[in-house]
Design goal:
Order of helices and strands: HEEEEHEEHHHEEE
Strand content: 25-35%
CATH superfamily: Electron Transport, Fmn-binding Protein, Chain A
Oligomer: single chain
Radius of gyration: 20 Å
CATH architecture: Roll
Distance between the termini: 30 Å
CATH topology: Pnp Oxidase, Chain A
């Protein structure tokens, strides 16, 4: 078995130069996300969400981005889950995309808010029926007795709502409104490219960071 200490990779695919990057971070993100999708890498829309509880314990999990723009990054989840409870106590969070095949990482930090309920309704109604029933059936992050409990709950709510389950009041969207972005491109000899965008008086300042 290879030693973990000896595992190394040389990053040689691309570069990230200030002159070739976008002035606005969400424009740069759009380019990179489009390239990740076009490259057909597994789940290019997957991102790690990091939150911190009121007792300062950090936690992470993978969620899926469902929308983005100048205003921020959107995803959907159970508001009563661990991440939902932590965001209620501390609304600042961090997101990270890691596109291994492209040797790229994007990190985003900022304030998180719930999105408009109407927008949550629209997205919820676009989901497959089983996913809509699942949002009712699963008390996310709570201890349950067995998988049988989940299946029983799913059957109960399927019988109750048939083909038209409404959005649960405990389920909906969040938006992270960034005040800091970082774009990381792997380079040879660990001399990676890192461009940071920070918000100052509603303007974005772009700077290079040492790797």
């Amino acid at each position: 078995m290879q030693s973990l200490a000896d595992m190394r990779k040389s990053y040689e695919l691309k570069e990230l130069d200030e002159k070739a990057s976008q002035l606005l971070p969400h424009d740069q993100f759009r380019i990179w996300l489009d390239e990740a999708i076009e490259s057909k890498i597994p789940e290019p829309n997957a991102m790690t969400l990091a939150t911190v509880s009121s007792d300062l314990r950090p936690s992470t999990r993978v969620v899926l981005v469902k929308g983005f723009g100048p205003e921020g990054i959107v995803w959907y989840t159970n508001y009563e889950s661990r991440k939902g409870r932590e965001l209620a106590g501390n609304p600042f969070a961090s997101l990270q995309f890691h596109w291994v095949e492209l040797e790229r990482v994007v990190r985003i930090e900022g304030l998180v808010e719930k999105i408009n309920p109407t927008d949550s309704d629209t997205y919820f109604n676009s989901r497959p029926l089983d996913s809509r029933i699942g949002a009712w059936a699963s008390p996310q992050s709570q201890v349950i007795t067995s998988r049988t409990y989940l299946m029983t709950q799913a059957a109960k709510f399927a019988a109750r709502f048939l083909l038209n389950p409404p959005r649960p009041p405990h389920w909906g969207g969040y938006i992270l409104k960034p005040d800091r972005w970082e774009f990381w491109q792997g380079r040879q000899n660990r001399l990676h490219d890192r461009l940071q965008y920070t918000k100052s008086n509603d303007n974005w300042v772009r700077e290079r960071l040492a790797p």
